[in-house]
Write a structure and sequence with these properties.
Blueprint lengths: L1 E8 L6 E4 L5 E5 L2 H16 L6 H7 L10 E3 L6 E3 L4 H6 L7 E9 L2 H9 L5 H8 L3 E10 L5 E11 L2 E3 L10 H9 L2 E3 L7 H12 L4 H15 L9 E5 L2 E6 L4 E2 L5 H15 L4 E5 L3 H4 L1 H13 L7 E5 L7 E2 L10
Parallel strand pairs: 3-15, 3-16, 10-14, 14-15
Antiparallel strand pairs: 1-2, 1-6, 4-5, 5-8, 6-7, 7-8, 8-9, 11-12, 12-13
Length: 337
């Protein structure tokens, strides 16, 4: 699965943002605040389908500072969230008076998703028509904020498969739809700003090393191999038990990876996200590694999404220019490649 188009409404500084024909290795540049807007829109879209992920995303976007202060209501899809402060919502909204955000994504579904839908086609004749029109999907998620900007209603506004509109509410809405949307959302991962996910990456790598499942052990080996090669070239990077926590160390002296500098930390976070997160779509915001060795890092990221047997289906790199990249247009009606 990968994202083919993005449309947002109601966000500031661009009240309307549109990008079409996104490739599987998409390098998207523009003003810094426009790139952050796009990253926030993607996170809010997918978190709006997963109640367990929604608090994490709201903290990452600055709605609150602690997970315990965020309340999420609704199962299996979230329909309401509350937090303590209005500042992040006010910053995201183009017009606080409208209090509404919409994110519409076009997607190309993969064979597993297509097969899932085909299994349900016998009960839903319209689904046969939708599948005959290809493996395209368009989904819109909306956020409507309260007047105090400390709560929001979250809704799936529209689901279109092929050219067929899927009922999203009421008795005609198919029972399989929430599970389908949640499985779709779990395939996306936005990497936090560099340095924020090292503890999670260290723990995940250490667990994978000792995991009896061959696929997880193979992923841990692939991660070590990636870090040993350009563009990262870390000296014998490996996870160890460091007191009560996991830590990634390098070299025969087993020095913690932060001692090697921020580029080494970001390398571990990025490679772990590619090999261990289980994501198929990875979103990165202004990765510093692209400043140190742009050509090699561009090539590595593109290969992670496009090479045969690659762990990802798509990588979205925001805020970094590339010869074949896309610009977030100041004119929201078109995207310049």
């Amino acid at each position: 699965m990968w994202i083919t188009s993005v449309r947002t409404e109601g966000f500031g500084p661009l009240p309307q943002l549109q990008l079409d024909e996104l490739p599987r290795a998409a390098f998207i540049h523009g003003q810094a605040d426009h790139c952050e807007q796009l990253a926030a829109a993607l996170q809010l879209f997918f978190a709006g389908l997963l109640p367990e992920r929604l608090p994490l995303v709201l903290v990452d976007l600055g709605f609150d500072t602690a997970l315990e202060n965020i309340e999420v209501l609704g199962q299996p899809l979230p329909d309401q969230a509350r937090w303590r402060w209005p500042h992040a919502a006010r910053a995201l909204l183009a017009d606080p008076g409208s209090r509404s955000l919409k994110v519409r994504l076009g997607m190309e579904l993969d064979p597993l998703q297509f097969r899932f839908l085909r299994e349900h086609a016998a009960r839903h004749p319209w689904l046969v028509t939708a599948l005959a029109e290809g493996s395209r999907a368009e989904i819109t998620v909306g956020w409507l904020f309260d007047t105090d900007l400390c709560a929001a209603m979250v809704s799936v506004l529209e689901v279109v498969l092929g050219e067929e509109r899927v009922p999203v509410a009421g008795p005609e809405s198919p029972a399989w739809l929430p599970g389908f949307l949640q499985a779709l959302a779990r395939r996306f991962r936005a990497l936090p700003h560099p340095g924020a996910s090292l503890p999670q990456a260290s723990t995940g790598w250490l667990e994978a090393v000792t995991d009896p499942r061959p696929s997880r052990h193979a992923a841990a080996v692939a991660l070590a191999h990636s870090l040993a090669q350009p563009p990262f070239s870390l000296d014998w990077a490996r996870p160890v038990r460091w007191g009560e926590q996991a830590q990634v160390v390098t070299g025969p002296q087993a020095r913690p990876v932060p001692w090697s500098g921020p580029a080494a930390v970001e390398a571990v976070e990025l490679a772990a996200a590619v090999h261990l997160s289980g994501a198929e779509i990875l979103c990165l915001r202004r990765p510093g590694l692209l400043q140190a060795d742009p050509a090699a890092t561009h090539a590595w990221l593109a290969a992670a999404a496009t090479a045969s047997g690659s762990p990802l289906e798509q990588v979205l790199v925001l805020g970094v220019e590339h010869p074949d990249g896309m610009a977030i247009p100041a004119d929201p009606t078109r995207a310049d490649a």
